[in-house]
Amino acid sequence: MIELATAPPGLELAAALADTDPARLDGSGLVDALAGYERLASWAAAGQARILAALGTTLVHDDEDWTREEVAAALRLSGHTAQRRIDTARDLGTRLPGTLQALAAGDLSYLQAVVIAEATRDLTDAAAAQVEQRVLARAAAQTVAELRRTVSRAVLAADPARAEHAHQRALGERSVQCWPAPDGMAEIRALLDAPDAALVMSAVNHLATKTDATDPRGIEARRADALVSVFAGARSGQVPAAQGPAGHGTSPGERRPVRAQIQVTVP
């Protein structure tokens, strides 16, 4: 009988999984089937990436590329999501053959492949190949977050100057956005320079811990209330006007000196 968790992804594994009745499996068998489906999903994603990459050579008319529109309509995706898939597929099909091979073998998830593709997009082909070779050795055993950190270090080592250029470009995209959430709530997302994000969290944590032991609120609720209190104070003129990151739009002397604290928790 085929081993669902370790069998090479493909038609044989797909048939075995289709014939598997979850009601007849114990806990271990269910986990194996789950792993098998994940490997099969990676194999399918690799096949779809090859199709997406090929579409880019057939849907160009009068010097206009209609690939995004066709993909968005066929897969019922937004234009942005469709373009992201197309860009990833083109990178996998040209500059990152090892990543595509690992995806087809079920050794990487599609999200891991996206991490590698997007992190190396600004690199030269040679530098991208160097990063790929360095990260694939460990990628199969890593979570998406762990792989993202590994790739970031590899990109910095492969091309420090270009990595700094990418950081400068990312700085220009810093933003604060708000979305409605259920039950009368809302979610705020801030994309910040890393030192500025550390400063914000340090201040929020400092304010959140300035309560007595009888405070019934959890730490996350206290952080949220502390964040609101900062901006409530802005109406009374207690908060300075917005300034850019040091060295990006303002000189260091224009910013008040601050001390940021970063807390790292490890097993």
SSE order and pairing:
Blueprint: H1 11-18, H2 27-55, E1 60-61, E2 64-65, H3 67-75, H4 79-94, H5 97-104, H6 110-119, H7 125-139, H8 144-158, H9 160-171, E3 175-181, E4 185-191, H10 194-208, H11 219-232
Antiparallel strand pairs: 1-2, 3-4
Helix pairs in contact: 2-4, 2-5, 3-4, 4-5, 4-6, 6-8, 7-8, 8-9, 10-11
Cα separation of the termini: 39 Å
Number of separate strands: 4
Low-confidence stretches: 246-258
In spatial order, strands of the major sheet run 1-2
Briefly characterize the structure.
This protein is mainly alpha-helical. The chain has helices spanning 11-18, 27-55, 67-75, 79-94, 97-104, 110-119, 125-139, 144-158, 160-171, 194-208, 219-232; strands at 60-61, 64-65, 175-181, 185-191.
Describe the structure.
The chain is mainly alpha-helical and 267 residues long. It is built from eleven helices and four strands; from the N terminus they run H-H-E-E-H-H-H-H-H-H-H-E-E-H-H. The protein has helices at 11-18, 27-55, 67-75, 79-94, 97-104, 110-119, 125-139, 144-158, 160-171, 194-208, 219-232, and strands spanning 60-61, 64-65, 175-181, 185-191. Helix 4 crosses helix 6 and helix 7 (125-139) runs antiparallel to helix 8 (144-158). Residues 246-258 have low confidence and may be disordered.
